[in-house]
Amino acid sequence: MAVTVALLGAGRIGKVHAKAIAATAGASLVAVADAFPDAADALAAAYGARVSSIDEIAAAGDVDAVIICTPTDTHADLIEQFARAGKAIFCEKPIDLSLERVKSCLKTVEELGATLMLGFNRRFDPHFRAVRQAIDEGRIGEVEMVQIVSRDPGAPPPSYITSSGGIFRDMTIHDFDMARFLLGEEVASVYATASVLVDPEIGKLGDYDSATVVLTTTSGKHCSISNSRRATYGYDQRIEVHGSLGAVSAENQRPISIEVASADGYTRPPLHDFFMTRYTEAYAAEIAAFVQAIENDQMPSPSGEDGLKALALAEAALKSIAERRAIGMDEI
């Protein structure tokens, strides 16, 4: 039988997940909830689902799982509500902007034995997974250094900055998770520096738009992360892992991968200009993995604990900037 899924949130990312559910064998979207009725109606109609309230979905006997795409400040409460309702849960990152609230939420999830998966979609990108596979196969020996470049084409509006938790909790958090995914060891210390180089309004709100972070493990492995809210040439997403026997990297992706040679030189098409097109395959693959975990009665990955550790790295980065020093993770 198909795993029946309800979608909480019919906005931009909700639409991405609805498409992924429809493309996943063994999954069916049966209900949609959103604070804006028109958005819920449109998405439900597109996929043959019904519009329901959150409480109705929690009580529904024909809903196996929920995908939470609502604002961040609702995530922890919804996770707890649906854990108590016996539903499997997929939630977009982060669980909350407070480490203590995340810990209390995960304690509830553990006590109830609930299934919870966090939306770190980049782990499912086929290019990044191929890098991890090369590491696992020993093709580059022991990992020594990781470099992650993650730069957005443009800064979000100020209204988003105030609700997102800032660049480290919202943007770099994906890179923190990717660093853990690739290093194969937990991070022991964090050193960060950040500036406002793109939009002065971001600085007025207490945030940054340009950042560099260095993560170091106990054994001395390290990862450097470069973030910017401005990349005039497109959505810049690259990783490189250097090891004792060689290196492996994943380059930027383009909607069309060709190269034209002429008297003017070599030209290539522009990069993807948005995360929803760059990571289309990753979004589909993570939902397929969530459904498979439910079918096999397994705990999915990334877990709530992965979300907690990534958020802790974000907190360490902020503390590092404030105190102008490296921060040990035992201080967080």
TrEMBL record:
Keywords noted in UniProt: Oxidoreductase
Residue intervals of the Gfo/Idh/MocA-like oxidoreductase N-terminal domain: 4-120
GO molecular function terms noted in the UniProt entry: inositol 2-dehydrogenase (NAD+) activity
Top-level taxonomic group: Bacteria
Enzyme Commission numbers on file: 1.1.1.18
Top EC group: oxidoreductase
Cross-referenced Gene3D superfamilies: Dihydrodipicolinate Reductase, domain 2 (3.30.360.10), NAD(P)-binding Rossmann-like Domain (3.40.50.720)
Domain GFO/IDH/MocA-like oxidoreductase per the UniProt entry, residue ranges: 128-248
InterPro entries: Gfo/Idh/MocA-like_OxRdtase_N, GFO_IDH_MocA-like_dom, Myo_inos_IolG, NAD(P)-bd_dom_sf
Family: Belongs to the Gfo/Idh/MocA family.
Stated name of the protein: Inositol 2-dehydrogenase
Gene name tied to this protein: iolG
